C-alpha cells in the first residue's frame, strides 16, 4: 500500500522530476483537448507538481489530489492491476471525459506519484483536426526509419542522408561524403556499434576516411 505525505528519497525526487518532461511532451503531442497532470504523493494536499491544460478543471500547480485519483490508486494497488487504469468520468462542470491514471514507482517499487491523462469528449472536432495538421510554417515532414536491426538502421540512414545531400546542389561534389557523415553524426548514428565500417561500405570509402570526416565535424562543433 502507498503511504501519503512520506518524505521522498533523492532518487524518488529525481524519478518524479524526470516525468515533468513527459507531461510536457504528451500535452504538446496530444493537444488542448487533453489535460495532463503529474501528482506527487509526498504531499497530497499540494500534490499537483505539473499540469497542462488545467483550464478544463481550473487546477494549477500546488492543487490537492482528488478523491477520484486516490480511488483509482487504491484500485491499482488492490485489484492486481499492471500499474494503470482507464475509465470514463465527468468533471465538476459535468463535462464527459475518458481518463487514465498511471502509477509512478520510486525506490523499492513504492508508488510515489500518479500521471493522469484526461481527454475531454466534448472537445470540438475542429480542434482535434487542428492538432493533427502540421502548421503552415513547419518544415517538411520528417521521415522515420523502421528497421528490423541496427545494421539495417545504419544502412537505411546512410541512404537517407545520401539522398538528402545529393539533392542539395549547393554542396560541392568533393564535400558530399563529408556532409553525409555530418548528417549521420547529427542523427547520432555513430553511437551504434559497427556504424563506421557500415557507413564506409555503403559510401565505398575507407573507415579511416569516415573517421577523418567525423573528427573534423566534431572539431568544428567544439570550435
Automatic annotation (TrEMBL):
Origin superkingdom: Bacteria
Enumerate the transmembrane spans. none
Q: Which InterPro entries match?
A: DauR-like (IPR039446), DauR-like_HTH (IPR039445), YheO (IPR013559)
Query: Which Pfam families does the record associate with it?
Result: HTH_22, PAS_6
- The chain positions of domain Transcriptional regulator DauR-like HTH read 158-215
- What sequence ranges are listed for the domain YheO-like? 17-123
PANTHER family on file: TRANSCRIPTIONAL REGULATOR DAUR
**Name of the featured protein:** Transcriptional regulator
Amino acid at each position: 500500500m502507498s503511504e501519503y505525505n512520506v518524505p521522498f528519497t533523492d532518487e524518488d525526487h529525481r524519478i518524479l522530476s524526470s516525468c515533468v518532461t513527459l507531461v510536457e511532451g504528451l500535452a504538446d503531442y496530444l493537444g488542448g483537448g487533453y489535460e495532463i497532470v503529474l501528482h506527487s504523493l509526498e504531499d497530497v494536499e499540494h500534490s499537483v507538481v505539473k499540469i497542462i491544460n488545467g483550464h478544463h478543471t481550473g487546477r494549477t500547480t500546488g492543487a490537492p489530489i482528488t478523491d477520484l485519483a486516490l480511488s483509482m490508486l487504491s484500485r491499482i494497488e488492490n485489484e492486481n492491476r499492471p500499474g494503470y487504469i482507464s475509465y470514463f468520468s465527468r468533471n465538476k462542470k459535468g463535462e464527459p471525459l475518458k481518463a487514465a491514471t498511471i502509477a509512478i514507482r520510486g525506490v523499492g517499487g513504492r508508488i510515489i506519484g500518479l500521471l493522469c491523462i484526461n481527454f475531454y469528449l466534448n472537445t470540438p472536432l475542429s480542434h482535434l483536426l487542428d492538432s493533427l495538421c502540421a502548421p503552415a510554417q513547419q518544415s517538411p515532414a520528417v521521415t522515420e526509419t523502421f528497421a528490423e536491426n541496427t545494421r539495417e538502421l545504419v544502412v537505411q540512414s546512410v541512404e537517407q542522408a545520401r539522398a538528402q545531400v545529393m539533392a542539395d546542389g549547393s554542396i560541392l561534389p568533393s564535400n558530399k561524403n563529408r556532409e553525409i557523415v555530418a548528417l549521420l553524426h547529427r542523427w547520432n548514428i555513430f553511437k551504434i556499434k559497427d556504424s563506421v565500417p557500415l557507413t564506409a561500405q555503403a559510401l565505398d570509402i575507407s573507415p579511416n576516411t569516415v573517421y577523418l570526416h567525423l573528427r573534423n565535424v566534431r572539431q568544428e562543433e567544439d570550435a
